[in-house]
Design a protein that fits this description.
Blueprint: H1 2-39, H2 46-60, H3 71-85, H4 88-101
Helix pairs in contact: 1-2
């Protein structure tokens, strides 16, 4: 069973590296096709295209790592679940605590539908 996991991990690593290599090649080709013609910028090498991908990952994140763009929706779902399990007194206490921190909070927010 451990051998099977090792082979699966090796296969995953191989395809991940292959995907990255092909994706980097397409970024390089698109840059070299569009940017010099549109803006008069220089051609870039394969390694510069890879550097652009790494830089964009650092600056903009995403890609499903560390939550990605849907992190907000998971948080909202957890909060809605907590809200449903609160008693009316707990809800009112929560509303009052949020009034001081988050600006205007309406007195009667829309209750979640069951």
């Amino acid at each position: 069973m451990k051998r099977n996991r090792f082979l699966r991990a090796l296969k995953f690593a191989f395809f991940a590296i292959l995907f990255l290599a092909v994706f980097t090649f397409f970024v390089m080709r698109l840059w070299n096709w569009l940017m010099p013609a549109l803006f008069g910028w220089h051609l870039i090498t394969y390694w510069q295209a890879l550097g652009l991908l790494v830089l964009s990952k650092i600056l903009f994140g995403g890609g499903g790592f560390r939550g990605g763009p849907h992190r907000h929706w998971r948080w909202r779902g957890r909060m809605m679940e907590r809200w449903e399990h609160m008693t009316p007194e707990e809800r009112e206490k929560f509303r009052n605590s949020m009034r001081g921190r988050c600006g205007h909070f309406s007195a009667s927010p829309v209750e979640p539908k069951a």
